[in-house]
């Protein structure tokens, strides 16, 4: 019994011998168990600065944009806005977006004029240009046809064939009115009207500051990006030379000598004209309208009157040739226009001219009934897009 009592007594004594918990230890352990220390209280001045910065960012959202990045530009360059560069419908176009009035908009503007509408030729021109282009999504076509925005059927037909292309249809009325007012009773060869139109178009469509003019009967196998990038220096026009047609083939040499010595017009050369000079090919032109001489139309009309061109009915108009004499940049020979004679020549040439298939225009020139070409040269048909016969008619 005594041993048992002593054992329990010693156990109780041992339990009572354990020291009570220290107050400092308890406080220390309590601070460790806290998850997050209380946040410091910021100074009032920093609160006002932060709130003011947020308000500043909010008001920035209401300011108008000053620059943009064109989604189709591979270089993603910043381009400044101005009042005339906004997207919008043109006054005579069917497209929902107009060309921007900036020479650095990243687009390659291609213009073509057609008196007698044959959509097959425009389709061949668009398809050959896009197929050869390095950046087809940057090519913007401007087709001038007789009815313009009234001919919505033609526009939709072309958009069906080229759904992802940049395409606008323009009317010819305003350009014709300017030329008609300028000549005001003067007579000149009818073929010269389409030759003058490329130089009048920028005065009507001022968004076209630098563009490539291409005749509708052209197969464009060269890259238009390379052509639009040509530096024109002080010239407003760039054209390839046609050395198969010399100057003396259009103008009598003796008559030209007399005019050169007696006339004192600014567009008449101060030095004698080179009789064997090559003439510019007007099928493909690079035009910078910001450098275009304002008296070009006057020079053309003056030469037409002096040379009595109302008696001429066909061929390249000599008034255009003389108005451009020594006033255009001669493009490299690679941009020379070559007639389409064989498939091998087409494969080795940048610019090919083919014979326009025979067509019968309507009374108002707004359409054409295609006929079988008499010369049998149908190379151009290979460049028609699929489904062209069903959509455009064969």
Rg calculated over all Cα atoms: 38 Å
Number of helices: 13
Across the major sheet, the strand order is: 5-4-3-6-9-8-10
CATH architecture: Alpha-Beta Complex
Tell me the name of the CATH class: Alpha Beta
Count the beta strands. Answer: 14
Helix-strand pattern: HHHEEEHEHEHHEEHEHEHHEEHEEEH
CATH-assigned homologous superfamily: Spore Coat Polysaccharide Biosynthesis Protein SpsA, Chain A
Q: Which regions are unreliable across 5 or more consecutive residues at pLDDT < 50?
A: 1-13, 82-103, 311-315, 362-376
Structural class: alpha/beta
Detailed description of the structure:
This protein is an alpha/beta fold. The chain has one domain: Spore Coat Polysaccharide Biosynthesis Protein SpsA, Chain A (Alpha-Beta Complex), CATH 3.90.550.10. Helices cover 34% and strands 17% of the residues. The chain is built from 13 helices and 14 strands. The chain has helices at residues 2-16, 23-32, 44-60, 119-132, 152-161, 173-183, 191-204, 224-228, 253-262, 296-306, 318-323, 343-347, 388-392; strands at residues 67-69, 78-80, 108-113, 139-144, 166-170, 210-214, 218-220, 237-246, 278-288, 329-330, 337-339, 351-353, 359-361, 368-370. Strands 5-4-3-6-9-8-10 form a 7-stranded mixed sheet. A 3-stranded mixed sheet has the order 7-12-11. A two-stranded antiparallel ribbon has the order 1-2. A hairpin with a 6-residue loop joins strand 13 and strand 14 (368-370). The chain is extended, with a radius of gyration of 38 Å. The relative contact order is 0.12. Residues 1-36 are annotated as: Disordered. Residues 1-11 have a biased composition (Low complexity). One of its GO terms (molecular function) is glycosyltransferase activity. This is Hexosyltransferase.
